[in-house]
Amino acid sequence: MLVRCCRVKLSVWAALCVLVLGWFYVFPAYRLPSDKEIVEEVLGLGEAWKKNQTGIDLYRNLLTECCNPRWMFAVTKENAPIGKVLWYDGEYYYSHTVNNETYSVFVQVNQHFHVVHSFPPGLQRGYGWKIKEFSFCPPVLCNLPPLTKEYLEDVGNKTHLVTANPSIIEKRFQGLLWSRKAFVDYLKAYGSSFIYMPAFSMKPGTDPSLRAYYAVTDSHSNLTMLFANPDFLRNVGKFWKARGVHAKRLSTGLFLVSLALGMCDEVTVYGFWPFSIGLDGQPISHHYYDNILPGKWFHAMPEEFVQLWHLHKSGTLRVKVGSCQPQNEGS
After folding, report:
1. β-strand 140-141 against 85-87: which pairing, if any?
2. If we measure between CA atoms, which residue out of 212, 103, 108, 112 comes closest to residue 161?
3. Where are the transmembrane segments (predicted)?
C-alpha cells in the first residue's frame, strides 16, 4: 500500500512536470532583454523616427474605449457626484463614498497635458530649451522633482502638471501633521501648475492627500490640486498588463503617457530610462536628482520601457534619449 501511494504521488508530479514543460514549449516564456541589449538596440536605431498616424489613431481609440482619459483622468464633480463609491485601485476591499467634504475638493473640469519623466543625469542633457517650446500640451513632471538652478538646462522651468505620491508627503514633509510651510514653499517652483495625487489608490494615502489639498488652498496658492480617478488607474493597469507589463502597479510615468496617448496628437517622452547604465555604457542614477530606486517587486519599469520602445519604433509616440542640443534638433 505504501509503495502504491508513492507511485501515485510520483505519477502526479511527473504529469505536472510534463504539463509545465509542454506549456513553455507551446508558449515560451518572455525574456526581458538585458540593460546592455537594450542600450545596443537604442544605439543601433539612432535618431531614426517616422510618425505613424495610423498607430496614433489606433492607440487613441483603444485607450478611449478602455479608459476614457479625457473624462476619467481625474476625480471631478462631474464624474464623482455625492454618493458615488470610489473603489481604491490599489486595495480592492476598500472604498470611499463621496460626501460633502470630499466633493467640495474635486475640480470642475479635466485638462490637457504633455509628458516629461524625472530622467537620470547624464542621459538627456540640454533638453530644457526644448521642453520650454511646448505650448498646447505643456510638460508634466513626476514625483515633485526639484526645479532648482542646476537642473534648468535639462528640465527647464515650465510645467503644467506635477505628480505627488502620498508617500512623498509622509517622508519629506512628515505627513503635514506638524507644519505646512516647508511643503507650500517647495511648491512655489511649480508656479500655477496642477498637483496630481492618487488620493484614492491606497487607503493610507487619502488623509495625506487631503491635507496637501488644504495646505495649498489655505495658502492662497495659484496651484490646483487634482486627485487621480481610481477607475482610470485600474483600467490603464489592465490595458498594459494585457500588453506584457506585469507589475503590482504601473509607474506614474506610464499612467501619464497613457493619458497623453489617449488625448494628444503627438506624444514625446523625455527621460524614461529605467536602466542602470546609460548609452555610453557608464553607470547612471535612477533620477536626475537622486538614486532612490522603486520597490523591487512594485514596478516593472524595464517592461514599461520595452513597450514604449515598441511604440517608438512603430511611430506611435517618440521616446527621446541621449543628449539634445538646439543646433542638432530639427523639430
Report:
1. unpaired
2. 112
3. 12-30
Summary mean pLDDT of the chain: 77
Overall number of domains in the chain? 1
The 3 state secondary structure assigned to 96-144 is EECCHHHHHHCECCCCCCCCECCCCCCCCCCCHHHHCCCCCCCCEECCC
Distance, CA of 4 to CA of 7 (rounded, Å): 5
Give the strand order in the sheet containing 194-197: 140-141, 161-163, 194-197, 224-227
Q: Is residue 25 situated within a structural domain? A: no
pLDDT higher than threshold 50 for residue 27: no
> Which pLDDT value is given to residue 290?
62
5 in a structural domain: no
- Using an 8 Å Cβ cutoff, are 223 and 195 in contact? yes
Q: Is there a domain that residue 213 lies in?
A: yes
What is the residue-wise DSSP string for 226-269? EEB-HHHHHHHHHHHHTTT---SS--HHHHHHHHHHHH-SS-EE
We report the CATH number of the domain holding residue 295 as: 3.90.1480.20
The answer to the question of residue 251 being in a domain is yes
Query: What are 38-82's pLDDT values in tens digits?
Result: 777 777 777 778 999 999 999 999 999 999 998 999 999 999 999
